[in-house]
Specification:
single chain, alpha/beta, about 45% helix, about 240 residues, four-stranded mixed sheet, lipid metabolism, 2-enoyl-CoA Hydratase, Chain A, domain 1
Length: about 240
């Protein structure tokens, strides 16, 4: 499951427990509820930090639940249900009226990788954890919003090729060189969260208007926002005009 905590203007969304944080329908619903709560409590100068307990950030969808349907068609229907249910999580993060930071304590695979990329900043550990898109290895095609987000957030065509077509497992320092994450200078679960807190505290000091921030973010990523149905709008919040 997940918990939500507020410390000053920093929100902490944490995937709890020591498992691999597979996205079940229950966990997805919990994430959507938590993000709606963050949005409702946002003020100018807020920021969100998303992290997890244990050696995984998230290992993706709950494929065991999908496969337990008893038939191939039933498993496919369940997988499609998970894909559709997770889409609002990505939409909520891309439209959240504040900076967002993913602090990865360990592995982020498939939809877990996508959750990390849905944030504005991604911090990894130096000593543990990989980014991995497993779909080519396990024989699944990618949902449209997965590939749209990858194209929006990973600028290098060769990096996208290696991740999506070669199933490459990318460690922290290499992920920094590839332009996927912002930092991999941490060597424990605690230190990666501490690094995220330092970054979050710098960002909240700017006291940006959250609505303006969210709309500028949407304008940066028109492809994924179009796929998600996020319609940009013009916001004028300056008193200097």
């Amino acid at each position: 499951m997940c918990t939500l905590e507020k410390r000053g203007n920093l929100f902490f969304l944490t995937l709890t427990g020591d498992d691999d944080h597979r996205f079940s329908l229950t966990l997805i619903e919990s994430l959507i509820f938590a993000l709606s709560k963050v949005k409702s409590q946002a003020v100018h100068g807020s920021a969100l930090i998303t992290t997890a307990h244990g050696k995984f950030f998230s290992n993706g969808f709950d494929l065991a639940w999908a496969q337990s349907a008893g038939s191939s068609s039933g498993a496919i229907d369940r997988l499609h249900h998970l894909v559709a249910s997770f889409k609002p999580v990505v939409s909520a993060l891309l439209s959240l009226p504040m900076p967002t930071i993913a602090a990865l304590p360990g592995h982020a695979a498939a939809a877990g990788f996508l959750l990390a990329l849905s944030h504005d900043y991604v911090l990894m550990r130096r000593d543990r954890g990989v980014l991995y898109m497993s779909e080519v290895d396990i024989g699944l095609t990618l949902p449209d919003y997965f590939t749209a987000l990858m194209r929006s957030k990973i600028g290098s065509a060769s990096a996208r090729r290696d991740i999506l077509l070669a199933g490459r497992k990318v460690k922290g320092e290499e992920a920094v060189r590839m332009g996927i994450v912002d930092s991999a200078a941490h060597d424990s679960e605690e230190s990666v969260v501490e690094g995220a807190v330092r970054l979050g505290e710098q960002l909240v000091k700017r006291k940006w208007n959250g609505e303006v921030y969210a709309e500028i973010r949407k304008s940066l990523y028109p492809e994924i926002c179009g796929v998600l149905g996020l319609v940009p709008k013009t916001v004028v919040a300056s008193s200097k005009l």
